[in-house]
């Protein structure tokens, strides 16, 4: 199978590295920046092109992985589908072109796969499984925060998409985490939010949110999302009359309360967590690999049901719009 990776920044290089583990996949890079192409050629030995049209004409690829900035996704997805490519895209953050591209993918009979990395983490999968089986109503308190300049220490936050109000840092946090929250605790019935700008950062959007969420099944929670927290944090407590779990965002920090011993007990996983230097401790590589494998599996079997879809995301982005309003 031939796959083009469009956008050779940090995420594009991550996708290339993970896809390179598959011996039956031939990869090609696409980026308009010559420096990025040169880096990928040197690091991975890939042939690179400046445009999709050029790569399609030369290589006749089967699929595309889109790792460009979110506001560019809609037009790139459309171009890839028009060239009869299966498409994997990073999270979009905005619903631009959703209806058109979903219809086009169906018309072309191509997979349109949306990244939702946290649905492929063993820790969140475990919380989802246990929450779905809970026999009592559940509450949760979830705080996700990291100081914006620390997201990509190697570049200014104004030089990539989190500096843009439409694709801002807090919105990305919500778009990353709400899919697994909804999967664990149920469809959202109502939301309310208190938000403000508490920092002196050079951004034109609210940098912190306190969000109350009520789910259709009676579960409810509080989500604190911010780009203010100086020490990066990801912590959730889930509790009910016969249920209690906590997680600090890392592979070794998931715990469950044992009612009989009255102690919190660690939940261990067999496979080791892979971490790449330069990212926060709670950013592990395994789920990025798993969602790529799910994309490849869906190409092989179009009847396979992905963990997250454009249809679900379309509805969730409306909720995020409501939170930001």
From TrEMBL:
SUPFAM superfamilies according to UniProt: Glyceraldehyde-3-phosphate dehydrogenase-like, C-terminal domain (SSF55347), NAD(P)-binding Rossmann-fold domains (SSF51735)
Question: Which Gene Ontology terms cover its molecular function?
Answer: nucleotide binding
Q: Show the stretches that span the lipid bilayer.
A: none
Q: In what residue span(s) does the Gfo/Idh/MocA-like oxidoreductase N-terminal domain sit?
A: 2-113
Record protein name field: Gfo/Idh/MocA family oxidoreductase
Protein species of origin: Xylanibacter ruminicola (Prevotella ruminicola)
């Amino acid at each position: 199978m031939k796959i083009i990776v469009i956008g050779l920044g940090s995420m594009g290089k991550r996708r290339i590295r993970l896809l390179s583990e598959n011996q039956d996949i031939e990869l090609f890079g696409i980026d308009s920046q010559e420096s990025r192409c040169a880096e990928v050629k040197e690091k991975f030995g890939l042939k690179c092109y400046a445009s999709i049209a050029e790569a399609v004409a030369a290589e006749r690829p089967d699929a595309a992985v889109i790792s460009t900035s979110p506001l560019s996704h809609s037009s790139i997805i459309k171009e890839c589908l028009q060239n009869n490519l299966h498409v994997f895209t990073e999270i979009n953050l905005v619903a631009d072109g959703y209806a058109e591209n979903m219809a086009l993918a169906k018309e072309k009979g191509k997979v349109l796969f949306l990244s939702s990395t946290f649905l492929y983490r063993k820790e969140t999968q475990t919380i989802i499984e246990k929450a779905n089986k809970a026999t009592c109503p559940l509450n949760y308190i979830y705080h996700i925060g990291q100081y914006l300049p620390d997201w990509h220490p190697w570049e200014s936050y104004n030089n990539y998409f989190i500096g843009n109000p439409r694709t801002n840092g807090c919105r990305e946090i919500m778009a990353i985490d709400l899919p697994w929250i909804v999967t664990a605790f149920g469809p959202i019935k109502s939301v309310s939010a208190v938000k403000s700008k508490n920092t002196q950062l050079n951004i034109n959007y609210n940098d912190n949110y306190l969000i109350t969420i009520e789910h259709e099944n009676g579960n409810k929670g509080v989500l604190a999302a911010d780009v203010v927290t100086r020490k990066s944090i990801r912590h959730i407590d889930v509790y009910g009359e016969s249920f209690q779990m906590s997680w600090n965002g890392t592979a070794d920090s998931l715990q469950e309360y044992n009612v009989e011993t009255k102690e919190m007990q660690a939940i261990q996983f067999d496979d080791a967590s892979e971490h790449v230097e330069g990212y926060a401790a709670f950013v592990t590589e395994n789920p990025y690999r798993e969602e790529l494998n799910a994309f490849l599996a869906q190409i092989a079997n179009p009847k396979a049901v992905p963990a997250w879809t454009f249809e679900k995301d379309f509805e969730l982005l409306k909720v995020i719009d409501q939170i930001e309003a």
